[in-house]
Amino acid sequence: MRHRHITSIVSWLIIITMILPMLIINTEAQSERNWEDIYRSLPRAELLKDYVQRLSAEPHHVGSVAGRRNAEWMRDQLNRWGLQATIEEYDILFPTPRERVLELLEPARYQAQLKEPKISEDDDSGDTDQLPTYNAFSGDGDVTAPLVYVNYGIPADYEHLTKVGIDVNGKIVIARYGGSWRGIKPKLAAERGAVGCLIYSDPRDDGYYQGDVYPVGAYRNENGVQRGSVMDLPVQPGDPLTPGWASTRDARRLSREEAGSLMKIPVLPISYGDALPLLKALGGPVAPESWRGALPITYHIGPGTTKARLKVVSDWNTRTALNVIARIPGSTYPDEWIIRGNHHDAWVNGADDPVSGLATVLEEARCFGELLKMGWRPKRTMIFCAWDAEEPGLIGSTEWVEHHAAELSEKAVAYINTDSTGKGWFTAGGSHSLERLVNNVTRSVKSAESDQSLWEAMQTRTRPVARNDNDRSRNRRRGDLPISALGSGSDYTPFLDHLGIASLNIGMGGESGGGIYHSIYDSFKWYTRFSDGDFKHGKILTQAAGTLTMRLADAHLLPFEFINLADTISGYLDEISLLPGEKVTLQPLRQAIERLGIAAEDYDRQLRQAALNGRLPVAGSKELRELNRLLYQSERQLISSAGLPRRPWFKHQIYAPGYFTGYGVKTLPGVREAIEQRNWNEAALQTEVAVKVIDALSDQIRKASSQLAVK
Predict the structure, then answer these.
(1) Domain containing residue 171: CATH number
(2) What gap in Å lies between CA 638 and CA 655, rounded to an integer?
(3) Are 453 and 447 in contact (CB under 8 A)?
(4) In terms of domains, do 424 and 526 share one?
């Protein structure tokens, strides 16, 4: 009897030992969800409105008085809310124009206005300290030459020009915005011998063809101009004089002649009001139908008898970029960082871009400050960032990442970015190891328009269309909605592409219309009339982004998942295999992706079994720390120290901005772009690189599975 009694006690002890960790984990999970519910009850639309109105009240480009005032105000507010906020400064190159001249000399004379006038319906359009209409990092020059219309100024357009016997060597080209990132247009023109480049907004793409123009409607009026940088961002963002290292006060700097990302020819953006007389004067062949915009003219390619003069001279001054950085220290894992950010500088007032998105970051921080007062503490450190100098070339975030690269490589779990946001539906792009997390969080947040969750609203809009049997099979396997891949164009770039930190870029939009991008008309007046005027979509984004941040910060086991990632990469390879003229063996890459899929499925199986059997590592234990480190370091395995061909700063081998698209993503970029350029030797070498990093990720996942399998 005594032996049986002891055996019974031992059996109960074994059962308790198995069940207790599960009970603790379930209790922790329920506590986390309760705190999330409280968090989602806190965001206030009226405060988002106040932030946008205050921060967009004056032009606040990098180096401006209003930019510093905004940075200091945000720092002070964050400290009042209970965060630990400071300003980190970098001295960066930021040229502004001293002279801008554009005139048509022949066959008739026309002097371009190069100015956006104030309109009476919007007082902010007359604010002082507005930057003029220009392209930052344009080359200096004073050139007189014939004019040629090059459509969007992308490689396919130059192929057509070659076919019709038109050479841009020694010419000034005029290209319309669209088709690629703006900096690609002068880059390609200069490579073909052009001496200058004009970029205009055609009303078919960005004006009255789309709808009523501002101030009557949301769209770009005839005087509206899209400012923007023409730095060679697909090669490297950040300060051109400190490539790969931070622009601290005492940093070594290249000369302008040594800097590889500066434009060599003069470039100027113009309105379609200024473009009309230039395009109307062109002779030569009639442009193909796909080249024709919505101006009331017959579009000719030129040059005919045209001659134009373009002059751009900039000051090439150094300005101080002010990054606002705020922290909530983690209670359990202070050296694991969840980073949330958006930029605060604008080309002019920037109510839409970037302040609408920045306001959600601030409101999240305020709400977390409220939770701190209630006794909540995040397990991991949260870092909230308001970046400066994003507009001229992602400079503030890039310099910070380069400055803190060693520490970030060790500690950063994930980066979550927003930029502008507006009325519409939820969108997300980023690392596909976080795709399931996005799906789970959007199931927890209500949409702005109905009782549906954000996920249900996304499902009705974004369920992928199956193009072939592989797509159909992939859609059946995945219960999750896909997120998009990231190229570049915002502050996630240095985190994801340079250091291999898993990243997301999220927002609301699609129903606002647009036509004030990078103009003086991007004002509080425009935003409240034509975008998220009641700020209810901003409130939803605050709830969703904060829940994402909170779930990563408080997770017992970090919510990385790899089956969707393997499926997604397999889809990218399917796309590449359909490229015309492909002459490289892709089978080793397909086999590496298959190995990744097997490793991903094994991890998923081990995770489910460990959770079911109570074998998940105990909170705060060495085993859990090691397992979580394997998970958040998984994205690092996808970078190559050598980087991509001709652009070593970009190290991620799955996602990158296209060399000829700028913002637009190229997936499996080394392999894809080599095949597109019919460079078969490079394609073979890049296939080997891709195999190597994918196998490294598979090894990392297998290590995580082994940790879970330990009894």
Answers:
(1) 3.50.30.30
(2) 9
(3) yes
(4) yes
- Do 482 and 577 reside in the same domain of the chain? no
CA 303 → CA 150, 307, 571, distances in Å? 11, 8, 44
Contact 175, 152 (CB under 8 A): yes
| Within a domain: 433 | yes
Same domain flag for 350 and 499: yes
Answer yes or no: do 279 and 400 share one domain: no
Structure token pair of residue 584: 């490289």
**Paired tokens of 559:** 């919510």
Place of tokens 């894992």: 333
Do the Cβ atoms of 597 and 570 come closer than 8 Å?
A: yes
For the ranges 9-23, 440-454, 471-485, the one whose mean pLDDT is highest: 440-454
**What residues are labeled active site?**
390
Segment 241-250 long-range contacts (CB within 8 Å, at least 24 positions apart): 241/93, 242/399, 242/402, 243/649, 244/402, 244/649, 245/402, 246/90, 246/399, 246/400, 246/402, 246/403, 247/90, 247/91, 247/92, 247/321, 247/395, 247/399, 248/90, 248/91, 248/403, 249/89, 249/91
CA distance 381 to 78: 15
Residues 344-381: tens digit of each pLDDT = 999 999 999 999 999 999 999 999 999 999 999 999 99
CA 287/CA 298 separation, integer angstroms: 8
Q: Is the pLDDT of residue 27 over 60?
A: yes
107-144 residue pLDDT tens:
999 999 999 999 999 999 999 999 999 999 999 999 99
Supply φ then ψ for residue 309, to 5 degrees. -120, 130
CB distance 164 to 334 below 8 Å: no
The whole-model pTM stands at 0.94
Which spans in 150-303 are helix H?
155-163, 184-191, 203-206, 272-280
Query: Residue 348's domain is classified under what CATH number?
Result: 3.40.630.10
Are 282 and 359 within one domain? no
* Tokens 């809310």 found at: 81
C-alpha distances out from residue 215 to 95, 123, 153, 703, Å: 31, 12, 30, 59
Residue 105 lies in a domain: yes
**Is 450 inside a domain boundary?**
yes
Contact status, residue 547 vs residue 39, Cβ threshold 8 Å: yes
CA-based nearest residue to 18, from 464, 465, 579, 612: 612
CATH number of the domain within which 607 lies: 1.20.930.40
Quick one: 339 and 485 in the same domain?
yes
Kindly state whether residues 653 and 614 are assigned to the same domain.
Answer: yes
Strand, coil or helix: 468: coil
Q: What pLDDT is stored for residue 20 in this prediction?
A: 45
pLDDT single digits (tens) 644-668: 999 999 999 999 999 988 889 999 9
Residue 668 in tokens: 């499996």
Q: Which residues pair with 102 in a beta bridge?
A: 310
Is residue 628 scored above 90 in pLDDT? yes
Q: Which two tokens stand for residue 414?
A: 């994930």
Same structural domain, 275 and 385: no
> Of 295, 314, 333, which one is at a domain's C-terminal end?
314
Dist. CA 348–CA 134, nearest whole Å: 12
**Which residues, 6 or more positions from 619, have their beta carbon under 8 angstroms from its beta carbon?**
24, 25, 28, 332, 556
56 is written with which tokens?
Answer: 């967009």
Over residues 458-468, the mean pLDDT reads: 65
> Looking at 288, 314, 340, which one is the last position of a domain?
314
Q: How many domains does the chain have?
A: 3
Domain of 416, in residue numbers: 56-93+318-554
Question: Does the residue 11 lie in any domain?
Answer: no
Closest by Cα among 505, 462, 510, 463 to 487: 505
| DSSP SS3 for 512 | coil
Mean pLDDT (the chain) is 93
